[in-house]
Amino acid sequence: MNSEQRMKSEVEIWKRKMMKKSGMMNRITKKAQDKINGLIPEKAHKVITESIKKMVQATLFGSEYLTKPKETYNLSLEEKEALIKDSLNKFRKTAVVEGAGTGAGGLLLGLADFPLLLSIKMKFLFEVASIHGYDVKAYEERLFILYVFQLAFSSEEHKKNVLETISHWDEVKGELVDVDWQVLQQEYRDYIDFVKMLQLVPGIGAIVGAYANYNLLDQLGETAINAYRIRAFNRNEITEEIPLDSDK
């Protein structure tokens, strides 16, 4: 099996994993999450919502995440991914330190973790796009980044729709004018709220914060690598379809 076949096989396995239905543990977690959400101060909900809204606006229209396209045109996909994994290690370390620090500081610093972690995630995604040689000044590239973000942190049902869009990006990107930030923020909150809210609990906040941030960056890294693999396959006019049906 050559590297291209291996990557395509890995993407297929990843897609099947992404499309798995929620197990009993996820349903139990969801119930606990709903209960905890009702106990969280309204101020916390407002901070989270506003942070996500500002992140979306900055991604689409701002300049704080801008990076120049890397000179990687002569590199193979494998070589580009090696650079991405190096970059992920750096961003993950930053996220772990930040999560432990804010988690140890109680409610106020715990709330500060939400916009800080969002910024780390966005900077990583812009770095990934840059390594692949895409110009992140282009609106469509910023939009793609937000779709990758949603693919990493959404419910199974929403992921199916987002994955379909990413899988046919060149065909549909001209029809996309914006991203629904309200849907994005609700999906994101539902995905991470339970573990991140535990970060606000005195005594365990630092441990939870570091652990959560490490795993959330890992999840984002895996998603970004596979999303850009799909795009690279399509760009090279590889026509073999990778099934979305998890039962195949």
Automatic annotation (TrEMBL):
<dbReference type="Pfam" id="PF12787">
    <property type="entry name" value="EcsC"/>
</dbReference>
<dbReference type="InterPro" id="IPR024787">
    <property type="entry name" value="EcsC"/>
</dbReference>
<protein>
    <submittedName>
        <fullName>ABC transporter-associated protein EcsC</fullName>
    </submittedName>
</protein>
